[in-house]
Write a structure and sequence with these properties.
two-stranded antiparallel sheet; SH3 type barrels; alpha+beta; 7-stranded mixed β-sheet
């Protein structure tokens, strides 16, 4: 059984990305799950350097769609490019969800202060 089929049978994957250095210093957390509304910067690939807001998260393949990262199809329509979540860094967290604040606090508490 190939890896893609195994992943599809497992169900959803967590779509996480690393945080920018400023956010790591602020929250003491190195990575978080990517959500719609976060601002990310692309670190690898054809769209390297593009920064924009996440418009869609595809949890099956761990891909995200970002404003500003678009491509033109052969028939002329413009579509969002699918970018893997491991190739981006979160530069601004969307803290609208109170559970997300709880996750940040819980993960910060588990870190050992040296």
């Amino acid at each position: 059984m190939n890896g893609r089929l195994k992943r599809l049978k497992r169900g959803r994957t967590r779509v996480s990305a690393m945080l920018a250095k400023e956010l790591v210093d602020e929250y003491k957390v190195h990575s978080m799950q990517v959500k719609k509304g976060d601002t990310v910067q692309v670190l690898r690939g054809n769209f390297k350097g593009v920064e924009g807001e996440v418009t869609k998260v595809d949890s099956k393949g761990a891909f995200i769609h970002i404003e500003g990262a678009t491509r033109e199809k052969s028939d002329g329509t413009v579509v969002f490019a699918s970018i893997h979540s491991s190739k981006v860094a979160i530069t601004k967290l969307s803290l609208d969800d109170p559970r997300r604040k709880d996750v940040l606090e819980r993960r910060r508490r588990t870190k050992r202060v040296v």
